[in-house]
């Protein structure tokens, strides 16, 4: 009786895309609107701070544009490296043995400022208020991105030039590299010292990989032993980042339940938290290798994985994503109880389940979801449609139930006329309320309207055909009623 919901059929329109370019705080989206799933756009929507920079399709104009951008970008990077190498050569004398501490400090400050990260010198990881705790969330994200780019560029500058230098210059370069690396670790330590929050976990993952990759390269390049102060500090910082990430990971379920304001939308549309959290989960997977090792290697879940089993499917590893989506769905179900109008709760859950499903299947999240996950949500949506019909329209149609047997003809006519009036009243009440409800996706809206129409219109037409002695009200033909129902869910 009810139309099967196929997520593939409903995937068109604006795409709340995502990018893996970095960042750990929400910003505005390229796509802006979300006509297709109704989640809207918000400055707090994590799914909107990484729009897809490479549109799908085979338009040669798009390919040429991307190629031009990449070519210009590559030339710019090479130019930057050359400029930094020239600055490096000019600053190396300050790191030769006879140079004083003041000269070195000034040279290091100028060196870091050239990468726009001079502020790391003012950070004190042992004091969170100086390390970043007092910074707005977006500022932490901006600084992490600038820091990661600077560390990557520094490593390339050192690697590409140190073989061309004299032995004395290489020694000075090693001193500059050690001072730079030690200063850059301050940001990583400050991130680890932040208070537990969703954005902290993203920042930790963004910082973890660069430290893990860049510092061993510097150690090999300059022959630093395992006890070298920089490598020792890097190991301590990585341990602090792992502890911080695992602490945030343990708090994530509580964050899903409480981090976002739970004011319910009046029209049953998608709650803004869906866009925020589905985007957040995608941000987590941006650094999925770090996520795998950091969250999947703790003592909490070692036993459940059976020794050295890969954490991809483990509750503490990337399997955490599926668990967190289930947590989000459970919270939505709980909060939907506040929607008391018959059928509104089911429309709310239908909208939100569709938005979650669509964002999952159209992103890299789908690779980390168990088999049958999509079909289970489609069946759940079918159940919401059936429950919606039972709650909202079955009572309307029940007004047409004929119970006039055994009575005088005149009494039967009056009863049937009264029943028709009751049906009209119930119909008008339902339509009046549900015109204000919102189903953004046009395919989903069409499915819901059809479910209403095939339930109400045939029953009404059959009642009029079975009881010709009862006249339909003006403007109440079956066709006009069907037209009226086609205006539902417009918001």
TrEMBL record:
Keywords: Exocytosis, Protein transport, Transport. One of its GO terms (biological process) is exocytosis. Transmembrane segments: none annotated. Residues 171-486 form the Exocyst complex subunit Exo70 C-terminal domain. It holds the Pfam family Exo70_C. Gene3D superfamilies: Exocyst complex component Exo70. Residues 21-43 have a biased composition (Low complexity). Residues 19-62 are annotated as: Disordered. InterPro entries: Cullin_repeat-like_dom_sf, Exo70, Exo70_C. Component of the exocyst complex. This is Exocyst subunit Exo70 family protein.
């Amino acid at each position: 009786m009810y139309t099967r919901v196929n997520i593939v059929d409903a995937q068109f329109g604006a795409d709340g895309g995502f990018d893996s370019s970095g960042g750990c705080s929400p910003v505005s989206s390229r796509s802006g609107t979300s006509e297709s799933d109704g989640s809207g756009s918000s400055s707090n929507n994590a799914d909107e701070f990484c729009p897809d920079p490479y549109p799908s399709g085979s338009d040669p104009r798009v390919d040429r544009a991307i190629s031009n951008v990449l070519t210009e970008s590559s030339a710019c990077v090479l130019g930057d490296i050359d400029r930094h190498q020239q600055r490096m050569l000019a600053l190396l004398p300050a790191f030769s043995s006879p140079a004083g501490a003041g000269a070195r400090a000034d040279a290091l400050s100028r060196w870091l400022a050239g990468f726009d990260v001079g502020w790391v010198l003012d950070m004190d990881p042992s004091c969170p208020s100086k390390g970043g705790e007092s910074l707005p969330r977006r500022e932490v994200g901006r600084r992490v991105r600038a820091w990661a780019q600077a560390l990557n560029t520094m490593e390339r500058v050192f690697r590409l030039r140190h073989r061309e230098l004299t032995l004395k210059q290489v020694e000075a370069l090693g001193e500059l590299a050690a001072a730079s690396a030690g200063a850059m670790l301050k940001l990583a330590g400050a991130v680890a010292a932040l208070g537990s929050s969703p954005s902290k976990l993203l920042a930790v993952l963004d910082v973890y990989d660069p430290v893990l990759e860049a510092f061993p390269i510097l150690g090999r390049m300059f022959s630093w032993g395992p006890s070298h102060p920089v490598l020792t500090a890097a190991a301590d910082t990585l341990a602090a980042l792992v502890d911080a990430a695992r602490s945030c990971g343990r708090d994530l379920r509580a964050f899903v339940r409480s981090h976002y304001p739970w004011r319910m939308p009046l029209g049953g549309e998608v709650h803004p938290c869906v866009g925020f959290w589905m985007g957040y989960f995608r941000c987590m997977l941006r650094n999925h290798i770090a996520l795998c090792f950091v969250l999947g290697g703790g003592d909490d879940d070692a036993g459940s994985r059976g020794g050295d089993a890969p954490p991809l499917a483990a509750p503490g590893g990337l399997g955490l994503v599926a668990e967190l989506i289930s947590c989000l769905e459970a919270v939505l179900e709980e909060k939907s109880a506040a929607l008391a109008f018959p059928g509104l709760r089911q429309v709310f859950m239908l909208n939100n389940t569709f938005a979650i499903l669509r964002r999952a299947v159209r992103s890299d999240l789908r690779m980390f979801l168990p088999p049958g996950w999509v079909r289970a949500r489609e069946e759940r949506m079918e159940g919401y449609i059936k429950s919606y019909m039972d709650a909202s329209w079955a009572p309307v149609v029940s007004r047409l139930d004929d119970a006039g047997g055994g009575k005088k003809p005149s009494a039967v006519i009056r009863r049937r006329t009264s029943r028709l009036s009751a049906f009209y009243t119930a119909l008008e009440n339902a339509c009046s309320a549900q015109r204000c409800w919102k189903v953004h996706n046009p395919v989903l809206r069409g499915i819901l309207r059809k479910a209403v129409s095939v339930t109400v219109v045939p029953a009404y037409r059959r009642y009029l055909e079975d009881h010709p002695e009862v006249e339909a009200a003006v403007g109440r033909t079956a066709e006009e009623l069907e037209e009226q129902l086609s205006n539902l869910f417009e918001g």
